[in-house]
Structure formats: C-alpha cells, structure tokens
Amino acid sequence: MKVRLWGTRGSVGTSGPASARYGGNTSCVEVQADDGTRVILDAGTGIRALGATLGPETGRVDVMLSHLHMDHVQGLGFFRPLDQPGQEVHLWGPPALRQSLEERLHRYLAPPLFPVRLCEMPCELHLHEFPRHPFRIGGLTIQVAMVCHPGPTVGLRIEADGTSLAYLPDHEPCLGPGELPEEPDWTSGFDIARDVDLLIHDSQFGCHQYHRHVGWGHCTLDHALGFAAMTGARRLLTFHHDPRHDDDALDTLLAEACARQSPLFEVIPGREGMLLELAR
Fold it and tell me: Is residue 48 packed enough to be buried (19+ CB in 10 Å), middle (13-18) or exposed (0-12)?
C-alpha cells in the first residue's frame, strides 16, 4: 500500500518560504493498494494538484471526507475529475441527523460561494454516507468510526496487502490538558487506530497552546504520541499542522515532544509531497 501526502496543514494553510519543507496545502492524502485501487482522504487545497495527475485512464475515483469543515473541502470545486464528462467519481462523507451529505455539500458547491453547482458537474457523480460496517473498494477494506471533533467527524482505517493505516486528521482524544484515559477502549478513535502500521494523526498544538483551545477538536504533539503508544501503532505521522507554525517551529515542537515522551515507535513529520510505502 502506498501513501502520498498532498496537503498536511490545518485551517487555511500557508505558502511560501516559511513552508518550503512542510508545505502549505490543507488536508489531502492519496492511498493506493497494490492492485491499483485508489482512495483520496479529504479534499483540502492539496486535492487540486492531485487531480491534475488523474487522466481519463484513471477509472473510478473515490474521495472520502472525514468531515465537512472548510479546510477539508475547499479544494473540491477545483478537483479536475469532477469536471470531466463521464468520469466516475464517488464522494463519501459522515452522516448527519438533519441533512443528507448532498444537502451539506450543496451549501459549499453553489452560488454565491462557488459558481458551479455540485449537480451541474459533468462527471458521473455518486454520493455515499459512510456505513457503520466495514466495506470494500477494490483491494482496500475501509472502516470508519465517529471521533471527537466538532460536527459529524470520522476517523478511517484502511487495510490492504497485509498492511493497515489509520487517518485521524482532526481529533482530540484527551479533552483536557491531563493524561490520556486509563481505559483505552473508551478513548475516541482507539478501535480505528489499534495496531496499525501507520497512524496519520492530528498534531496541531504545542503544550503551551493547548490550554486555550481545549474542546476545539485538535491535539497536542504529546497527546498524539501518547495516543500512538496506547494504540500500538508502529509509526506515527504528524499531520494537520498549525498554519501559524513555520518549518523551524514545527521541527522544534516535534523534537521537544519526542524528548519528553521517548516514543518506542518511528515518528515521521508529515510533509507535503511525501510518499510512503507500507510493506507487509
């Protein structure tokens, strides 16, 4: 299974020299099984560049939205496969109590926010709300669960080719400045991330910032490291970086957190353009 990062920032993101190493696009990750099955996780601004690589020969395209906050959907209108006549595109998202996925997406892809309505896109479009049970797309097995973040939000677990990853880009497993809960089974996202080969996890705040943002649905680097240890993840990839942190600040925050936590697993700073191959 291959994993490529097309956007790793939270909020509106940044660009320019301050983000030369980490990148400035918002959340978007491409996952591909050995049989060629591809899914795209979130549609932040990074999805525009990804879409430019997908030609008519691509076949079916699946985009899975962890939630519908702006930084995770703001690239959707500029995703080239949506503008290709006959291109099969499947959009997946979490269910909500009062509105369907189609109704919620129409609030963004419609005037005055966007000139073209979702229903006017020339592609062959299919909308799906995530089921509660695991499901398969080609060689990928996908499982979702609601996680702690404002609004309907899911974490995703993807398994293929004897490997596994968990994607929790916006997640607050601790809900307070203290330690993670002693009962892991009761912790948000635990089942999704248990024993995965790669955990892609929210790492937005430093410890000195978190006390002002408790309940915002985001995580400190220390809590991300603790969550990875709790779940038995083999590798942690830090993600959803605060756009106010330049490259040097991100390096410093991660080094300090690792010095405090002494993780026994590999920690990878999530950088735009990075490609990882998960081996059996």
Answer: buried
Strands across the sheet containing 2-7: 124-129, 88-93, 61-64, 38-41, 28-32, 2-7, 275-277
| pTM, entire model | 0.95
Note the pLDDT tens digit of each residue in 227-263: 999 999 999 999 999 998 999 999 999 999 999 999 9
Closest CA relative to residue 250, chosen from 237, 260, 241, 262: 241
Q: Which of 174, 171, 222, 179 is nearest to 200 (CA)?
A: 171
